[in-house]
Amino acid sequence: MKPGKFPLQAFLMSCLVAGWGLVYVGRIKWAIGVAAFLYTGVVLLGVFGLSASPVGLYVLFGFIVVVKLSSAVVSAVLARRYDGPADVPRKRFHALYVGVLIVITFVLIEVLRAPLMGFKTYYIPTGSMAPTVSVGDYIVTDLKAGAPKVGDIVVYRWNGTEAIKRVAGVGGDTLAIVNGELIRNGENLGLFHAPADRVNGAASMALAPVEVKPGHVYLLGDNRNNSNDSRFIGQVAVEDVVGAVTGIWFSKERSRIGTTFPLQ
Fold first, then answer.
1. Which of 51, 103, 242, 258 is the most buried (most CB within 10 A)?
2. CA quadruple 78, 79, 82, 88: dihedral positive or negative?
3. Within 13 Å of residue 46, how many CA atoms lie on the same side as its CB?
4. Buried b (16+ CB within 10 A) or exposed e, 22-38
């Protein structure tokens, strides 16, 4: 006799959408509870800043996977034991349930990303921050890191796009480059995170003293010879700084996965 519900279908439905397999077997309250638990956990991890780092991102992914897999297993077991009508609940309710969760997911990821989620991920297509951050790296950015500090790697908006560089100076600082070394307020900061073999071009060896305007930051790329930074584009307004890069959560180079960049 053909079963009323299919365990594999219930399992896959819960893997796709939190609690959907439970809706399939008629446990609507359980499904809503699973979805509420999942989204509450995701939001709390974001609100408390726990997901804005490589380790935190792994925890977030793990939490989502565990919740979905657990509900999927329960859904499959209930489907195997199901002996009720095959057409309950109606397709309209399925569509409503999935639609509501899609809207909630969109709102969290796009609309309320900064205040609730607190992080954003990026793929690195250029080598201006190599070897610290290289082409092919996937970084995570803390959107609630606060005011940029000297030494932080930040994502900023410029010319209609977003890019990353390192903060070399903040409002009120006086900067200069002498023999490739960064001088900040009279203090020699050396090559300032740039490898020696990437500091030898004319623009990398010398910079006349410049004062950073209030409400602005001066940015430099670690790959000093190949970086379109404040030496060329000028100072960047703090309001155009999106967030601070906290690490590399994935990379084509296995040894780089999980690399963290402590905020200054």
1. 51
2. positive
3. 21
4. bbbbbbeebbbebbeeb
Tabulate helix, strand, coil % of the chain (nearest 5): 40, 25, 35
| The pLDDT of residue 1 is above 80 | no
- Residue with tokens 């009323």, as numbered in its chain: 4
Q: How far apart are CA 257 and CA 136, in angstroms?
A: 11
Rounded to a whole number of angstroms, the CA Rg of the chain reads: 25
Decide yes or no: CATH 2.10.109.10 for domain 119-256.
yes
Contacts of 111 by beta carbon, 8 Å cutoff, 6+ apart: none
Tens of pLDDT along 25-70? 999 999 999 999 999 999 999 999 899 999 999 999 999 999 999 9
The H or E element that residue 153 is part of is strand 153-158
pLDDT of residue 219: 98
- What is the sign of the dihedral through the CA atoms of 58, 122, 145 and 191? positive
